[in-house]
Design a protein that fits this description.
Number of domains: 1
Largest sheet: 3 strands, antiparallel
Structural class: alpha+beta
Distance between the termini: 60 Å
Order of helices and strands: HHEEE
Radius of gyration: 21 Å
Number of helices: 2
Helix content: 25-40%
Strand order of the largest sheet: 1-2-3
Number of strands: 3
Strand content: 25-35%
Shape: elongated
Length: 79
């Protein structure tokens, strides 16, 4: 009897975790990509980036991947 309860609880937990994962929209996950090349490498969200760090930002609806490079007094994501 106890083993059936454990199996039912495990299956319920699996289905619940799948439902929660499906509830996270793409827009929320997309928020991790910077809106411009300056924000992709600088504070407040990317303070740990250094010269040579990988970065991503949006440009005309496309996601651009690049590398942070020093430009003047700040870092900029260069594709």
């Amino acid at each position: 009897m106890f083993s059936k309860t454990v199996i039912v609880a495990a299956i319920s937990a699996l289905f619940a975790s799948q439902a929660i994962a499906a509830a996270v929209s793409m827009d929320e996950r997309a928020a991790m990509i910077a809106p411009d090349p300056i924000a992709a490498c600088n504070c407040p969200n990317n303070c740990r980036h250094k010269n040579g760090s990988s970065c991503k930002f949006y440009d005309n609806g496309n996601t651009i991947s690049g590398e942070c490079q020093i430009e003047g007094d700040h870092l900029k994501c260069v594709a």
